[in-house]
Design a protein that fits this description.
Helix content is about 40%, strand content about 15%. With about 260 residues, the chain is of the alpha/beta class. The longest helix is centred in the C-terminal third of the chain and has 16 residues.
Length: about 260
């Protein structure tokens, strides 16, 4: 059974929690923490099995349990911002612990990552390929996935170098954690519940994202009409890296408007 998750906190003000994506860790948020800690208490949390919580893994690695552990680790009402898989976790926290969520920010995320008949997303074959790669070589799989984050960025090599620098401050997660958390991307579908979110809610996208395609935007307007949207032109799956200053400025403007 997992213990209370370790979190890192910096700054003063309203708590703002950042949750990383698959294969990453809280190191990815370092540049944002430095720019936002003057207004908010910026909290970064490593998902179970990753980063500072590498040895803290629940017996049952499902979305509801991961969301519960993250919320319990934070332990107070906060704004939740989740990137990619982290966006799914943040959304689940908003749905299941509404009194603990002041606002929701999803970054390059989707309520259903897998491509289906009526829904654009990641082709199942791509995720199957990652499962296969994990069984052969964890390091190569992580490196392959890092490259996908920057695809579509106008300065791909620079972004890759920065992502690598931030993430490799922590040891790599184990194969089982990577496999189990990858399965969350394949199996989770929160599309029909998005209309239940009542807190301020904004969706941030990179126009050139190859994992969350732009064809999702109008579909999300129907599923979550109460949400706001912001698209970063020329940005990749990691707009907070490829368009760091603009991303931080726009996010801060939205946060201050709603919470300060």
């Amino acid at each position: 059974m997992a213990e209370r998750l370790a979190i890192t906190s910096r700054g003063t003000g309203i708590p703002l929690v950042f949750i990383h994506g698959w294969g990453f860790n809280s190191g990815i948020w370092q540049p944002l923490v430095e720019q936002l800690a003057d207004v908010f208490t910026v909290i970064t949390v490593d998902l179970p099995g990753f980063g500072n919580n590498a040895d803290n893994i629940p017996d049952d690695y499902n979305l509801e349990e991961i969301a519960r552990l993250v919320q319990a680790g934070v332990g107070r009402p906060a704004i939740y911002a989740g990137w990619s898989l982290g966006g799914l976790v943040a959304t689940d926290i908003a749905l299941n612990f509404p009194q603990q969520v002041l606002g929701l920010v999803t970054i390059a995320s989707s309520p259903c990552f897998i491509e289906k008949d009526d829904w654009p997303g990641i082709k199942p074959k791509l995720l199957s390929g990652f499962h296969q790669q994990l069984s052969e070589n964890i390091e190569n799989t992580i490196e392959s996935f890092l490259k996908i984050q920057a695809m579509g960025s106008p300065h791909l090599r620079q972004d890759l170098k920065e992502i690598h620098r931030l993430v490799m401050q922590y040891p790599l997660p184990g194969r089982k954690t990577l496999d189990d958390s990858l399965s969350l991307l394949e199996s989770s579908d929160r599309r029909n519940q998005l209309a239940d979110i009542r807190c301020p809610f904004i969706r941030l996208y990179g126009r050139n994202d190859v994992l969350v395609p732009k064809s999702i935007y109008p579909l999300m307007e129907v599923l979550a009409p109460q949400s706001e949207v912001m698209v970063f032109e020329g940005a990749s799956h990691a707009p907070f890296i490829s368009h760091q200053d603009e991303f931080c400025r726009q996010l801060k403007t939205w946060l201050v408007k709603h919470f300060c």
